[in-house]
Design brief:
The complex is a heterodimer of chains A (about 575) and B (about 90).
Chain A lengths: L4 H7 L4 E3 H11 L4 E4 L6 H7 L5 E4 L3 H15 L3 E5 L3 H4 L2 H9 L4 E7 L15 H5 L5 E4 L6 H13 L5 E7 H5 L1 E3 L15 H13 L3 E5 L2 H4 L3 H11 L3 E3 L14 E4 L6 H9 L2 E5 L5 H4 L10 E6 L13 E4 L2 H9 L7 H13 L13 H11 L4 E5 L3 H9 L8 E2 L10 H11 L4 E7 H4 L6 H7 L4 E6 L4 H10 L15 H7 L4 E4 L5 H10 L4 E6 L28
Helix pairs in contact in A: 1-2, 2-3, 2-8, 4-6, 4-19, 10-15, 12-15, 13-16, 17-18, 17-24
Chain B lengths: L1 E10 L4 H11 L3 E9 L4 E10 L3 H10 L3 E8 L2 H9 L1
Antiparallel strand pairs in B: 1-3, 1-4, 2-3
The chains are: A alpha/beta (about 575), B alpha+beta (about 90).
């Protein structure tokens, strides 16, 4: 807990207040300055307590948008995001965002109103069993059945959301509990125990590294979540071990780091995939052998021994049995592991650098039309150091991962585990609230953008200077790509040529915009978007023939990548 | 098919059994036998016999992550012994 807030909470000890007021007070005690939400009948006492309180509220126009804004806020800042929704449909609308936060280990506390305890189980108006519904889409959940449990439950919720492997926690609060009176006392907090590594585990891991000739680091989102970016960068500097990252791991390692080959997996760089397939030791740091990373699991880094480091013991051996498994805090494990270690992999480093040179991305496209990878690479070059890019899901998301570069993992927000279309716009809103000084850009596609387009109103209401780069191929591009490659070009329901006029639509929300069609317009378009004072929508029409390359086909090993086969335009 | 016998000690919460059952089903374990008992110290004992092709660690690791689970022990994973207990 932050100083000052704790003092404020203690100052008012012993005061009798409504449950609803206690909710706001408990949030303030946890340093929460902004919540994202949408009111409704069963949460009205909490909205009443919010009225005039120092906690700011950002009204979304759909609860999924509110919860994604909380996710974006959390991912961009490292703090716990908070969202509110009412009972019934309000709560059910949260499910997708909570599931997204669960798969990407994002600390979020969702507070839902519930019908009064006396009518729970009677199929009352806007009643649904939210606790039951929450079991599969949260790290943990509570229903507060008595006002005495309210404050301790809220404190526990924040503790569970942020500790260990973070995740979403839902607190369902019946209306009668919100209006009941209580004496606010700061609860005594049990300190959660985190797993700790042993010196024997470290020795075993060191021995494997010393025996290795061709080690690789496979870096996941756990590094950023553990605030272990500096420790990882030091580890790489000390040992010189080459590295690759997952979608969530991007930004943990800067692109100018020697031996860093970018993203691995289904749409990873060729060098990254080949290097991992060739390595004799895979050091897995805060990652989980996701199927989009491994391709055919049985042949993933087939000849490598594995050292697996993660805070979540359940990930160790879940999909690949490691030779050494260490559950614990990466901030401690990484420095302990590299102690007294020198650089001993010169031949392998040289080979890696050669692979990196051989398989570089190329942006020299002939033709008049806009090549999205080149445009995104240009955008990355133009962005100031303090920037956040929130993507949606699909082809543009993979192009962002391949062709943009990030200073920190919290600068790249992408729905990785759940792959939720509609993530980008509300996540960008949350990121802008968390980091008002950062340039925040959402890169979206014409399919994804429509999934939470109502959040343009949230931007309008707060005049949030969120930049929207909308890449439009009038297709559900990633699905179309698979239909083209694996379903005999039977394009079932992936044509989106009846899209609205996006710039006209943005203007209805008082967001200025521009359409660009030609490669020659990219430079001025990006500059106009970035230099505009408020929000801006840059609508970019691209050729629908462009696909994401390379591609590891489903069921194939990562060395068997399909190479570009687009017709040149 | 492997049979495993598990003994869980969990917090007494109305939804705790649902949490354990959901995890068992989702992680690919069929419940062959189940009994639970409320204890006087606010805990609940759950004894389960589960079947799966999968390693038991894939289930116990996930059960141990549940906030309301105090501990989870594998009593045995011997197929014939499991059968005897099932019949008894």
């Amino acid at each position: 807990m932050e100083q000052g807030q704790e003092g404020a909470a203690q100052m008012e000890q012993g005061q009798t207040i409504r449950g609803a007021d206690a909710v706001i007070k408990a949030l303030a005690a946890h340093g929460v300055t902004t919540v994202f939400g949408y009111p409704g009948g069963a949460i009205m006492p909490i909205y009443d307590a919010l009225y005039g309180s120092p906690v700011e509220h950002l009204l979304s126009r759909h609860e999924q948008g509110a919860a994604f804004a909380a996710v974006g806020y959390a991912r961009a800042s490292g703090k716990t995001g908070v969202c509110f929704a009412t009972s019934g449909p309000g709560a059910t609308n949260l499910v997708t965002s909570l599931a997204d936060a669960l798969l990407d280990s994002v600390p979020v506390v969702a507070i839902t109103g519930q019908v009064s305890t006396a009518v729970i189980g009677t199929d009352a108006f806007q009643e649904i069993d939210v606790l039951g519904m929450s079991l599969s889409c949260t790290k943990h959940s509570f229903m507060v059945s008595h006002v005495d449990e309210l404050v301790p439950t809220l404190y526990k919720a924040f503790e569970v959301a942020a500790s260990g492997r973070p995740g979403p926690v839902l607190v369902d609060i019946p209306k009668d509990v919100q209006i009941a009176m209580l004496e606010y006392k700061t609860p005594l907090q049990a300190i959660s125990t985190e797993p700790e590594h042993t010196s024997e585990q470290l020795n075993d891991a060191r021995a494997l590294i010393e025996q290795a000739k061709q080690p690789m680091l496979y870096v996941g989102g756990g590094v950023g979540m553990a605030s272990a970016v500096e420790q990882l960068r030091d580890f790489i500097k000390v040992t010189g071990i080459p590295s690759v990252a997952t979608l969530k791991g991007l930004g943990s390692i800067t692109i100018d780091t020697p031996g860093y080959l970018g993203m691995l997996g289904m749409h990873g760089s060729k060098a990254a995939n080949l290097a991992v397939q060739e390595c004799d030791l895979l050091i897995v740091v805060g990652a989980r052998f996701d199927d989009r990373v491994t391709g055919r699991l049985a042949s993933f880094a087939e000849n490598a021994k594995v050292i697996h480091l993660d805070i979540d013991a359940a990930e160790l051996g879940k999909l690949r049995l490691p030779e050494v498994a260490i559950a614990g805090d990466l901030r401690q494990i990484l420095p302990a592991l590299s102690q007294n270690m020198g650089q001993q992999f010169a031949a392998w480093q040289a080979k890696i650098e050669h692979m990196k040179q051989e398989h570089q991305w190329r942006y020299d496209r002939p033709g008049e039309l806009i090549y999205a990878p080149a445009m995104l690479n240009r955008l990355a070059q133009k962005l100031p150091k303090n920037s956040v890019v929130a993507c949606d899901v699909g082809q543009h998301q993979m192009w962002v991962a391949q062709h943009m570069f990030f200073n920190r993992p919290e600068d790249h927000l992408s729905s990785a585990g759940l792959g939720t279309m509609g993530f980008g716009l509300p996540a960008a809103i949350g990121a802008k609230v968390a980091r008002p000084d950062a340039t925040v850009v959402t890169v979206s596609g014409d399919g994804s953008f429509m999934m939470n387009v109502q959040e343009l109103t949230t931007i309008k209401r707060k005049r949030l200077p969120v930049k929207i780069l909308l890449i439009d191929n009038q297709k559900l591009g990633m699905v179309k790509q698979w239909q083209q490659l694996f379903f005999e070009e039977r394009y079932s329901e992936t044509d989106l040529s009846d899209n609205p006029d996006f710039v006209k639509m943005a203007s209805a929300f008082e967001i200025p915009g521009r359409n660009i069609f030609k490669a020659s317009e990219v430079e001025a378009g990006l500059d106009e978007m970035l230099n505009s004072e408020g929000p801006f929508l840059l609508h970019v029409s691209i050729d629908d023939a462009h696909n994401v390359w390379p591609l590891v086909p489903p069921g194939a090993s990562n060395q068997d990548m399909m190479e570009e086969m687009d017709k040149q335009t | 098919m492997n049979n495993y016998s598990l003994a869980l000690n969990v917090q007494q919460r109305p939804e705790v059994l649902e949490r354990v059952l959901r995890v068992a089903r989702h992680r690919g374990f069929k419940i062959a036998n189940l009994s639970m008992q409320l204890n006087s110290n606010n805990s609940t004992s759950i004894d389960m016999l589960v079947e799966s092709e999968r390693e038991i660690g894939l289930l116990t690791n996930q059960i141990n992550k549940l906030i309301d689970v105090i501990d989870c022990r594998v009593l045995f994973s011997d197929p014939s012994a499991a059968l005897v207990k099932q019949k008894g």
